[in-house]
Amino acid sequence: MPLHPQAQAYVALYPSDLNTDLATLDLATIQEMRSADGLAAERGPITHLPFVRDEVAEGVPIRVYRADRGDDALPVVVYFHGGGFVFGSVKRNDAVGRDLALRTGAVVVSVDYRLAPEHAFPAAADDAWAVVRDVFARPAFYQSNGRVAVIGDSAGGNLAAVAAWQARDAGLALAHQVLVYPVMDAAMDTPSYREFATGHGLDAAEMAWFLAQYADKADESDPRLSPLRLPSCRGLAPATIVTAGCDVLRDEGEAYGERLREADVPVETRRFDGAVHSFFGLPGLFDQAIEAREYIAARLAEAL
Known about the structure:
Layout: H1 5-13, H2 27-34, E1 51-57, E2 60-66, E3 74-80, H3 94-104, E4 107-111, H4 123-137, H5 139-142, E5 144-153, H6 155-169, E6 176-180, H7 191-195, H8 204-215, E7 239-246, H9 250-262, E8 267-276, H10 287-303
Parallel strand pairs: 3-4, 3-5, 5-6, 6-7, 7-8
Antiparallel strand pairs: 1-2, 2-4
């Protein structure tokens, strides 16, 4: 599959996601890298919203966005950022949180889940589920009308998928789940892992490194780590799955869509041809990011 011209320009500058020797990434270096963001200007504008506040949900820091000044109850969209379970934060992903609030008209709750390697599996999954549980438990606090969706990209897509099946098992009626090039299986053995192993942004070796930081000694078949291994997908929330055509994670995201379809879960899977991993979070570089966000907002509006 040929790269989109904008993706070609991107990988010419960033042939791999971390662009560094993985053997040099000790904890001090990781923490230093977290404090820098060379792509901040490409993540989109920090659009003014009348309502943005930092809160805590069951001990987990969150940022709550609302695009209007009203007091009416609204649907809530819980957002989990990407970053390989190691990088990313509410602050770094502030632009996308604001953008989601504007595009969906919902209350957006962005989650500052704990990061690896300091906090290994299942810390991030536990934080994600705690926030979703809190949104259902305290609707007045979130100005929620009871309609709740989850969305996540990359590692955040993993957390959104895990929270979705935990909600099902807890009897909580999640309205929708949006998974953007999600991490769905720790096996890393799909054709897309081989086809796009190097030179397409997120390298296969880098993804293995990310998973090693998070998974530690966990069983890779645990569905909290590998949602694709979930014994049954029946009864899960309707889903939208977005994949990038030139991404090691493409096949596992699309395989999850097939599993949902086979379980009679309403699902729509859309591949963005020629796109590379991370395109969704960089509208300053990729026109397909805007296209994907408009598509996702329309799907959420229909569901909510």
